[in-house]
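Hi V.,

You were right to ask for the full record rather than a summary. Here it is.
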Amino acid sequence: MFDNLSEKLGGILDRLTGRGALSEADVDAAMREIRRALLEADVALEVVRSFTERVREQAVGATVVKSVKPGQMVVKIVHDELVATLGSDVQALDLNTVPPVPIMMVGLQGSGKTTTTAKLARRLTERDKRKVLMASLDVYRPAAMEQLAVLGRDLGIDTLPIVAGQQPAQIARRAIEAAKLGGYDVVMLDTAGRTTLDEAMMTEAAEIKAVANPHEVLLVADSLTGQDAVNLARAFDTRVGLTGIALTRIDGDGRGGAALSMRAVTGKPIKLMGTGEKTDALEDFHPSRIAGRILGMGDVVSLVERAAATLDAEKAAAVAEKMRKGKFDLVDMRDQLLQMSKMGGIGGLMGLMPGIAKMKNQIAAAGIDDKILNRQIAIIDSMTREERKNPDILKASRKKRIAAGCGLKVEDVNKLLKMHRNMADMMKAVGRGKGGPMAGLAKAMGFGGGLPSAEEIKAMQEKVQGGELPELPKELPSSLRGGLPNIPGLTGMSGKPTLPGLGGFPFGKKK
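Predicted structure:
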């Protein structure tokens, strides 16, 4: 969502970091450009003014640390002010009260209230082990109640039975009573929206609040709405009293102004963000991580957390054992590709990696998308069980059959096999690394010692934000010094990105 803002701020700050010393005129010129970039991103004018004033005050009188260039100091100041604007601390949902805890979802029609209700219910059920009851209070939109019931059935989460003719306040009262009788921990109230703010909606929301006495009132706001989102948050906060905001469509092409404005204008924390269409695409809102993404620093912590959430511990242990024996077949490779797909695919992972933002146009031109992963999985699926276990038996006739089976060319099969050989070499090296220099790499990949500790993750994030990336161990075979093996289909890219601990990532053939 922050692509345009990230690109513009990145360009402005890059010009500053290249200079040995900064004059007041340099800072003023940069502030003018930053002001323009923020306004173009649809950030509220009052927020832009206070943001640029705070940055300018600190930048002009910045105490420059030895060995840190003034330009780099300005980048840190901008980063810290972005964090302050977005809300310095992470604020999670507050469920510390006598159950059932009522959570009321409010917002305009089409902002994603019903889907966000289901996403949050799934998260509370699976991650926090809470017993959740969902209730739809939308008696106006056709099939709104049925939509929540279907989502509940798909996720295995209880929904309040529909009783025709009841008004929203009556449904809310019935939901609270049913939750008490059923021993539920949380009751989620999905209220009705309108296409625009109107008095009837606000009166109804106030009635529901009076009946249900919700512990959390979350405004579900579409991040594509820009300036209107700020007016919306103000109006709801005045009439209902918000406790937090859930931003939807963070993965869309909005300009990011809503996220930067709403927290600063209303003082209400952004607690959640929807990162996709699926019901598992809901994340906590971390101001420091979002600021890092906006400034192209990446988000190593979210990357590792995503890996931890989707990692199959049993499969990881099985692969670790195979690695110790120096084995890595196409079945293992298929598992790795599926794991990457679960973590958000190539696009989702690249958005979290440092330095990738600057290569956005090159990546788009090279046609890098999740279809590449699907094609590779299709090639492996077209093989027999024996071929997957023992790729060395794949000769010309077998390759032709596999290519025909998955609708691709023999060249694609050959590329996949070459990639597998490179990965197998790396796995052997990692497998030999227990106790030695490779042990750290094995641990970072989730094998052997598990995922890095919280302290290690924090240290890694600080190194990345400071522009320092760890190097690969010297003992790594020379064939792998260039980084990860080539991925079939990722060709035609210059200025290859650098990943933490993996040197270069060669997107294409080696010259």
